[in-house]
């Protein structure tokens, strides 16, 4: 085997690829959070719960009405997005003019309640969701066995991330969205319904979490605490990338996946903390985050 | 200066008073109050959470609801899997609320914190969900009864059998906390003693979602068995990753600690044939089935070994209270060790002087999807391991 300085390169390549897979997953998750924070200035602590909800809706749909994976991939984000719209319209909008802390606490409480209810209904042990037939099996690369489903995660995440970024940064809709954050009164004066835009953006951001939940269901066990486990990491990624920077969240997500993957190889004990270590260093050197604009 | 001295002396008085109160003997007020401290909504809630409360209540009701002529009282609390919270609940219970005995107890870290309180206050603990063997060895006490299982029994069951079948090169994916380390350490000794070797280990933080990186390391290690020295969702996630990356095609997976809810959460195609050791299986015989059906009607799911253990331990405790006619911990524990526990759970059982409840353990195999009659039909019993072969020998220093 190709080894150098005691490092097995084949194994290292494997770890790098796995890091990229996890990273693309992080990117997908932090994207929704970055949109909601970047455009709406809402720190949405319920994003993890929405991700869990996405996985559960897919699982329950499969169990009770035989909804297959591909249908779930389309329907579930919409269902979760609608829930997000309702949350924004009836819970967050009434406190929109208060300090950010209020929406943070509200969404945090909401997350705990949703998680608690799901634990009560479905237990804490987690359930399995089958990998769709078309994506079963894998490819044997020289350095590792790559399951098809993991390759699919990379492709889909990159596609969704890029198109979201393009939509917000390059299209007219994106211009409205960004203008609505910068100067809502002025945009309203042009006859644009700003509150509607805000609600739909929130719904879209939350829908992305639901989408990530469906993507995660076949590989991770579907359990009520799956969201809270990952939420803190995703928050750290958004902070490292620069609060509100969409492109930053995507690139940082990918990068942190790789950093975490390498840590799992060289010093696995630290793999749960390495991202937070990076966060501390970035905050000390560049408090606005790697890609953030100075506030 | 004067003021400082006063503050200092007040502080010392406070510490002394606190020490005295915390070492005061358990209340012998003639009324039995049982506290169940478990994980009500966390990762281990299905293993020993609300179910452990239900099982304990069943034991109280089956016993007749009264002991020493008074109604038996049951209280419960959520440990939240946090040792500091568990320890303050335990202190409140034994110091202010006259709780006689604390049961449930899942996660060795939580149990360690609780037993520090109860050992001092001389209250009995009935450990039914935790795995560490420390409670009857390095941290043993005259007031501990460790029911259900421990890491040694798990290793002596699953690991020994597999090494004897020629699976001699082991790789460990271990949960990076006290329980995982203990399970890994004990298993390695069993492997070595039976002529096998450990070719590598990796320590994964508790609550890891993605195990693919560790699975890849296992793949490169040249082992023929990958042992999962973890629990709960960690085990399920690790197993899923192993199957996904093709590991299960040419390596055996040994789940060292699997509770029934976890086994049910596993994809049958992936988990089929996997062997594991358990202290209890609901479908073993008529006795276990009868109790399990009653439990299922109340809880909504079949019992885990911790649930069955909680019932058995409570029942044995109450019988001892009844026999000695007091709730004095020393007298009750002496009686508990004198009589042999004997119920649907405790088979060929004895509560040893060190507090270890030794009973028959089961080596089981996860059934194929095609062989399952219903969702609860998950294991084939491969072998019954006698208690004295499963558990660690008693340390002379712990023979109370």
From TrEMBL, chain A:
Protein name as it appears in the record: Amino acid/amide ABC transporter membrane protein 1, HAAT family
Superkingdom assignment: Bacteria
Places the protein is found: Cell inner membrane
Keywords: Amino-acid transport, Cell membrane, Membrane, Transmembrane, Transmembrane helix, Transport
CC terms in the record's Gene Ontology section: plasma membrane
Keyword Amino-acid biosynthesis among UniProt keywords: no
InterPro entries, per database record: ABC_transp_permease, BCAA_transport_permease
Membrane topology annotation: Multi-pass membrane protein
Protein's UniProt keywords contain Membrane: yes
Transmembrane region(s): 12-37, 71-92, 104-123, 149-168, 189-218, 230-254, 266-285
GO terms assigned for molecular function: transmembrane transporter activity
Gene Ontology terms describing biological process: amino acid transport
Species: Marinomonas polaris DSM 16579
Chief location category: membrane
Family stated for the protein in its record: Belongs to the binding-protein-dependent transport system permease family. LivHM subfamily.
Lineage of source species: Bacteria, Pseudomonadati, Pseudomonadota, Gammaproteobacteria, Oceanospirillales
TrEMBL record, chain B:
Keyword Transferase: no
InterPro entries assigned to the protein according to its UniProt record, in alphabetical order: BCAA_transport, Leu-bd, Peripla_BP_I
Domain Leucine-binding protein: 31-369
Keywords: Signal
Signal peptide span: 1-26
Gene3D superfamilies referenced in this protein's UniProt entry, alphabetically: 3.40.50.2300
SUPFAM superfamilies reported for this sequence: Periplasmic binding protein-like I (SSF53822)
Family: Belongs to the leucine-binding protein family.
Cross-referenced PANTHER family: LEUCINE-SPECIFIC-BINDING PROTEIN (PTHR30483), PERIPLASMIC BINDING PROTEIN OF ABC TRANSPORTER FOR NATURAL AMINO ACIDS (PTHR30483:SF6)
Protein name per its UniProtKB record: Branched-chain amino acid transport system substrate-binding protein
Lineage of source species: Bacteria, Pseudomonadati, Pseudomonadota, Gammaproteobacteria, Oceanospirillales
């Amino acid at each position: 085997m190709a080894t150098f300085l005691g490092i097995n390169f084949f194994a290292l390549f494997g770890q790098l690829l796995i890091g990229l897979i996890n990273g693309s997953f992080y990117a997908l998750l932090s994207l929704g959070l970055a949109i909601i924070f970047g455009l709406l200035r809402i720190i949405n602590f319920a994003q993890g719960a929405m991700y869990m909800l996405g996985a559960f809706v897919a699982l329950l749909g499969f169990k009770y009405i035989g909804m297959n994976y591909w249908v779930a991939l389309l329907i579930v984000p919409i269902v979760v997005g609608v829930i997000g719209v309702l949350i924004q319209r009836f819970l967050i909008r009434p406190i929109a003019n208060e300090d950010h802390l209020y929406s943070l606490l509200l969404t945090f409480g909401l997350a705990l309640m949703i998680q608690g209810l799901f634990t009560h209904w479905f237990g804490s042990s987690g359930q399995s969701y089958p990998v769709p037939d078309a994506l079963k099996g894998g490819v044997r690369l020289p350095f590792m066995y790559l399951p098809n489903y993991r390759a699919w995660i990379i492709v889909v995440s990159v596609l969704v991330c890029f198109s979201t970024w393009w939509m917000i940064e390059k299209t007219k809709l994106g211009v409205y969205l960004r203008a609505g954050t910068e100067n809502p009164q002025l945009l309203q004066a042009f006859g644009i319904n700003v509150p509607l835009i805000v609600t739909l953006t929130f719904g879209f951001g939350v829908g992305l979490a639901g989408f990530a939940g469906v993507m995660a269901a076949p590989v991770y066990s579907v359990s009520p605490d799956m969201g809270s486990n990952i939420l803190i990491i995703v928050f750290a990624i958004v902070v490292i990338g620069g609060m509100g920077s969409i492109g930053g969240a995507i690139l940082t997500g990918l990068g942190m996946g790789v950093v975490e993957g390498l840590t799992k190889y060289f010093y696995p004990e630290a793999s749960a903390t390495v991202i937070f270590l990076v966060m501390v260093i970035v905050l000390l050197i560049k408090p606005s985050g790697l890609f953030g604009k100075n506030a | 200066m004067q003021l400082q001295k006063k503050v200092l002396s007040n502080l010392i008085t406070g510490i002394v008073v606190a020490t005295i109160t915390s070492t005061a003997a358990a209340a012998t007020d003639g009324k039995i109050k049982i506290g169940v401290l478990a994980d009500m909504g966390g990762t281990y809630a299905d293993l020993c959470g609300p179910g452990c409360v239900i099982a304990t209540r069943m034991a109280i009701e089956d016993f007749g609801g009264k002991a020493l002529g008074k109604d038996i009282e049951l209280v419960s609390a959520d440990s939240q899997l946090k040792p500091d919270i568990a320890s303050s609940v335990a202190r409140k219970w034994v110091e202010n609320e006259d709780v006689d005995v604390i049961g449930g107890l899942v996660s060795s870290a939580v149990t360690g914190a609780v037993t520090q309180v109860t050992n001092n206050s001389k209250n009995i603990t009935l450990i039914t969900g935790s795995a560490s063997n420390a409670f009857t060895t390095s941290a043993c006490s005259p007031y501990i009864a460790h029911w259900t299982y421990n890491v040694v029994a798990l290793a002596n069951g699953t690991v020994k059998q597999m090494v004897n079948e020629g699976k001699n090169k082991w790789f460990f994916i271990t949960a990076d906390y006290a329980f995982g380390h203990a399970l890994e350490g004990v298993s390695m000794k069993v492997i070595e003693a039976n002529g096998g070797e450990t070719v590598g280990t990796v320590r994964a933080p508790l609550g890891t979602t993605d195990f693919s990186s560790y699975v890849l390391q296992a793949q490169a290690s040249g082992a023929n068995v990958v042992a999962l020295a973890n629990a709960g969702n960690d085990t399920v996630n690790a197993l899923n990753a192993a199957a996904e990356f093709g590991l299960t095609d040419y390596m055996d997976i040994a789940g060292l600690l699997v509770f029934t809810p976890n086994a049910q959460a596993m994809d049958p195609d992936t988990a089929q044939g996997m062997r594991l050791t358990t202290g209890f299986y609901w479908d073993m015989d008529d006795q276990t089935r009868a109790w399990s059906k009653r439990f299922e009607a109340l809880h909504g799911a079949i019992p885990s070994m911790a649930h069955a253990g909680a019932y058995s331990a409570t029942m044995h405790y109450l019988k001892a209270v009844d026999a000695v006619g007091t709730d004095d911990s020393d007298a009750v524990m002496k009686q508990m060790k004198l009589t042999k526990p004997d119920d649907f759970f405790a088979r060929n059982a004895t509560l040893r002087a060190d507090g270890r409840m030794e009973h028959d353990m089961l080596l089981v195999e996860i059934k194929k999807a095609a062989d399952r009659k219903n969702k609860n039909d998950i294991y084939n019993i491969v072998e019954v391991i006698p208690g004295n072969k499963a558990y660690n020998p008693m340390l002379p220093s712990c023979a109370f």
